[in-house]
Specification:
Number of strands: 0
Structural class: mainly alpha
Radius of gyration: 19 Å
Number of domains: 1
Length: 261
């Protein structure tokens, strides 16, 4: 549903934009980008959340910026400076602190399995590879051109995995509230999010793009505080400051063009 509807929206928007010709070599690259940037990350994440506790999942996914830093160094020759590595580790420590504090107050639900951990690590690795390898391709075309092809590929690849369950799903039993939640997920968390992600990819470095994911647990806590299901503590404030400090350090670290060749 995410690939179909969000993809259709990108194709609809493309009708009102100048047409871009994408040669076959780049179409093949976009095909690969769709696999490691949308299809497989979504598939592995959905399998991961069914087999890991929320806290364990949050902890494991904090390795994504670290993996992205190494992927960008290998494929894009982005330098791993002491300043950049230090910034990543500082934010890493801050977000772990936030998660562990949440763990202390959480009742816990599901049990984490080895297969769940494997899916988590695969998810992090795949998305890190996407951020660390696809920046030149993303910069070559408009957001809409990239995303319309990537979501089309993802939709086609998803069909064999989803047809059996779609055929047996009783959609009439789905409540109106859930349909609104699905609509929010498709429009905001898919169409809008993937519209903005390539814009960020072309303007800031892959490691920093990935590090902004560290804001997710902070936003979740902020929403929980507003809703009255959590409370603001000094520990959470200090942990949040560590995350922002790390992001600022990486932002001000040297880029590839700043390093003498």
């Amino acid at each position: 549903m995410r690939a179909l509807v969000a993809g259709a929206l990108f194709w609809l928007v493309s009708l009102f934009m100048p047409r871009e010709h994408v040669p076959m070599p780049d179409l093949l690259k976009i095909f690969g980008a769709a696999i490691i940037g949308i299809f497989l990350p979504q598939l592995t994440f959905l399998n991961a959340i069914a087999r890991t506790t929320p806290v364990d999942l949050s902890i494991i996914t904090t390795i994504t910026p670290i993996l992205t830093m190494f992927a960008a160094a290998i494929f894009l020759r982005e330098p791993i400076t002491w300043k950049k590595a230090g910034g990543v580790l500082i934010s890493f420590a801050g977000v772990l602190w936030v998660i562990m504090q949440s763990n202390a107050q959480s009742s816990g639900a599901a049990e984490t399995t080895p297969l769940g951990i494997t899916y988590c690590i695969l998810n992090c690795t795949l998305f890190a590879l996407y951020l660390g390898t696809c920046r030149p391709l993303v910069a070559r075309y408009s957001v809409v051109t990239m995303m319309k092809w990537m979501f089309l590929v993802s939709f086609v690849l998803a069909i064999p995995f989803t047809l059996p369950s779609l055929a047996t799903t009783d959609f009439s039993a789905v409540s109106g509230t859930i349909w609104w939640e699905i609509a929010f997920l498709i429009f905001f968390a898919t169409f809008v999010a993937y519209f903005l992600l390539p814009i960020g990819q072309t303007r800031i470095r892959p490691t920093l793009v990935s590090m902004y994911g560290y804001l997710q647990p902070l936003i979740a806590i902020a929403l929980a505080i507003v809703e009255g299901t959590d409370r603001l503590t000094l520990t959470k404030v200090l942990a949040a400051l560590l995350v922002f400090l790390g992001v600022w350090i990486v932002t001000t670290s040297k880029k590839r063009q700043d390093i003498p060749s």
